[in-house]
Specification:
Distance between the termini: 79 Å
Function: Important as a means of generating NADPH for biosynthetic reactions.
Number of strands: 28
Helix content: 25-40%
CATH topology of the largest domain: Aldehyde Dehydrogenase, Chain A, domain 1
Main location: cytoplasm
CATH architecture of the largest domain: 3-Layer(aba) Sandwich
Oligomer: single chain
Shape: globular
Protein name: NADP-dependent glyceraldehyde-3-phosphate dehydrogenase
Pfam family, one: Aldedh
Strand order of the largest sheet: 16-19-20-15-14-22-23
Domain Aldehyde dehydrogenase: 26-481
């Protein structure tokens, strides 16, 4: 319970249960119930969080609506100023927040600190970008359209949507929370956040936004009690969700509100004969195994030309042998996956591949939630691992005989988040990129979300809408027009 005893965060715990955050205060639920948060490394309860009631959700929504009306009238420069202050506080408390990420989601300590610092930078950039985007209006005159006189002037600008419901994932809970909080606030919205079940302690980040009192709330509880109730709540004006299949269900129930969703991927890495094989191996290991493969933008399948496959597999195996496997406190490269059910799902994919004849480049090894890195060679399309997203340190290699074969496999997936191509021929790279049905294609680099101001979007079952700081600000606003009507020119001229 890292944050509980550390100064500015001391008020977030009530006995053994962490409070929820509403209207600028940490509160205890009237339900008297709580939800256990399990440490992935020990598989023991780390702490408990409040199980909020539907009535408490109603109160949170009403308070957010009231606070948003006043916030929308706050000058843009002042909103930006408050976000800059929040960013500074966030960075100042990077150590205790990072410690929470280590215990809650088994994130290696060095990566946890990096996430918090990156998040502070994101908030600062959002403040600056918001001033640029929202500080501009547009003027149209009527006589630019046929049949009209010059007697109407249309002034348009961006205004907030209202209350944004934000649902971040477990794997980058701080970064993907502030990537929703920052754009929502700079645009003049209020925000209600439903944290992932696995994560809560790190949401002491809300104390970084103390001067935005009432504008941010964080409600916790059982999905069966408040999940659908939140996403279908009439007080919600926009939903920003990052996660898995749940997003598809949310999109069907949400009604007529703007949706921003990133729902996972099966990111393909296509390797051609002329690629720099050392570069390929380094990016495969980094792309597929960092944070134990628990990233939507992780390399999830390697589609490699047969002529270079043996060499690349050998190079990747050599690098995998050097990875440190163990607890996150030791800054291990491979740490336990987030839940036992996740580990069981990964094991199911591995066993299916074994039964169907995949080549195991390492011995499969598991202790609790900890799974050792595993490369599966000679994977075929009839194996589950060829299509399903393991979200763990297991990578399939499918050998191909042409770029077209790789493109076909990539496009046959129901996912379309990111992909990457390795080749020295930029012309081939561009042609393949154009043919791949994915939101982003990296050339000679592993898939990656950032930098955070880049557009980030998925096709097919990988999502709706586009993320990235600029796109998020635009998505969380709407255009408001005011038309000034003047007397006709013939009347005024006599």
């Amino acid at each position: 319970m890292a944050l509980a005893g550390t100064g500015v965060f001391s008020e977030i715990i009530d006995g053994e249960v962490y409070r929820y955050y509403a209207d600028g205060e940490w509160r205890s639920s009237a339900s008297g119930k709580s939800v256990a948060i399990v440490n992935p490394t020990t598989r023991q309860t780390q702490y408990r969080v409040q199980a909020c009631t539907q009535e408490e959700v109603n109160k949170v929504m009403e308070a957010a609506k009231v606070a948003q009306k006043a916030w929308a009238r706050t000058p843009l420069w002042k909103r930006a100023e408050l976000l800059h202050k929040a960013a500074a506080i966030l960075k100042e408390h990077k150590a205790p927040i990072a410690e929470c990420l280590v215990k809650e989601i088994a994130k290696p300590a060095k990566d946890a600190v990096t996430e918090v610092v990156r998040s502070g930078d994101l908030v600062s950039y959002t403040a600056e970008e918001g001033v640029r985007i929202l500080g501009e209006g547009k003027l149209l005159v009527s006589d630019s359209f046929p049949g009209n006189e010059r007697n109407k002037y249309c002034l348009s600008s961006k205004i907030p949507l209202g209350v944004v419901l934000a649902i971040p994932p477990f794997n980058y809970p701080v970064n993907l929370a502030v990537s929703k909080i920052g754009p929502a606030l700079i645009a003049g919205n209020a925000l209600v956040l439903k944290p992932p079940t696995q994560v809560y302690d790190s949401f002491g980040i809300f104390n970084s936004f103390t001067e935005c009192e009432g504008l941010i709330s964080c409600v916790t509880g059982k999905g069966s009690e408040i999940g659908d109730f939140l996403t279908m709540h009439p007080g919600v004006n926009c939903i920003s969700f990052t996660g898995g299949d749940t997003g598809i269900a949310i999109s069907k129930k949400a009604g007529m509100v703007p949706l921003q969703m990133e729902l996972g991927g099966k990111d393909a890495c296509i390797v051609l004969e002329d690629a720099d094989l050392d570069l390929v191996a380094a990016n495969i290991v980094k792309g597929a195994f960092s944070y134990s493969g628990q990233r939507c933008t992780a390399v999830k399948v390697v589609l490699i030309m047969e002529s270079v496959a043996d060499a690349v597999v050998q190079k990747v195996n050599a690098k995998l042998a050097k990875l440190k496997v163990g607890p996150p406190e030791d800054n291990s490269d491979i740490t336990p996956v987030v839940t036992e059910s996740s580990a069981n799902f990964i094991e199911g994919l591995v066993m299916d591949a074994k039964e169907k004849g995949a080549t195991f480049c390492q011995e499969y090894r598991r202790e609790g939630n900890l799974i050792w890195p595993l490369l599966l060679d000679h994977v075929r399309p009839d194996m589950r691992i060829a299509w399903e997203e393991p979200f763990g340190p297991v990578l399939p290699v499918i050998r191909i005989n042409s770029a077209e074969e790789g493109i076909h496999h990539c496009n046959a997936s129901n996912f379309g988040l990111q992909g990457c191509i390795f080749t020295r021929d930029i012309n081939k790279a561009i042609l393949i990129s154009d043919a791949m049905e994915t939101g982003t294609v990296q050339i000679n680099y592993a898939p990656a979300r950032g930098p955070d101001h880049f557009p980030f979007q998925g096709l097919k079952d990988s999502g709706i809408g586009s993320q990235g700081i600029t796109n998020s600000i635009n998505m969380m606003t709407k255009v408001k027009s005011t038309v000034i009507n003047l007397p006709s020119p013939s009347y005024t001229m006599g």
